[in-house]
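Next comes the chain:
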Amino acid sequence: MRAFVAVEIQDYNILDAIAKIQSEFKIKATPVNKKNMHFTLLFLGEISEEAAENVKKALCTISFKPIEVRFTHVGAFPNPRSPRVVWIGVDDTSSRQLVELASQVEKKLGPLGFKSDKPFKAHLTIFRIKIRADDISNIIEKFKKIDLGKYIMTELKFKQSILTPNGPIYSDLQVVLAQ
C-alpha cells in the first residue's frame, strides 16, 4: 500500500478560502481537491501490511500539543518562473511547530527504515503541475500576503493513498490525537 503521515485541514471556511484562491489561478494544473488538503509530514511510499502495523505502533508513542496554524502566503516549487507545485505557506510559529512534529515523526519511524529525502517545509499543496507551466510570478505576487484565519490541528494521521485517473483517494489507517 502507498502511505504517508500527515495533518489535514478540516475547517470548511479555510477550505473554501483556499478554493477561492485556486479559482484565481488560470493555469494548466491539477488542483488539489478540498477534501484532500493536508501537510505531508513524511511520505512512506509503498509499504507492506506488516510495515503498516509497525508504523502504527511507533506513531502511538508520539505526543504533541494542538498546533495553531495561520495561512499567510502563496508560493511555488521550485520557483514561480517554472512552477511544479503551487502551495500555501504558514507563519513562522506554525512552521516551527509543524517542523518539530515532522521531526518527531521521522525520529519514531527512522528505526523502521523511513527517512525523508529532503528537509520538511511546512506547505499546503494546492496545485500539481505536470506540463511545464508559464511564469506565475504575477499571480504569486498577488497572494504574497494572505490571511485565511487560523486552524487548530489536533490530529496526526497515518494515511493510505490509492492513485486513480481522477486523482488520489485517501483513507485513514490511524489517527493520533494531540494532548
Remarks:
- Strands lie at 2-8, 30-31, 38-46, 67-77, 85-90, 123-128, 150-153, 155-162, 169-177.
- Helices lie at 12-24, 49-59, 92-109, 137-142.
- Residues 59 and 108 are 7 Å apart (CA to CA).
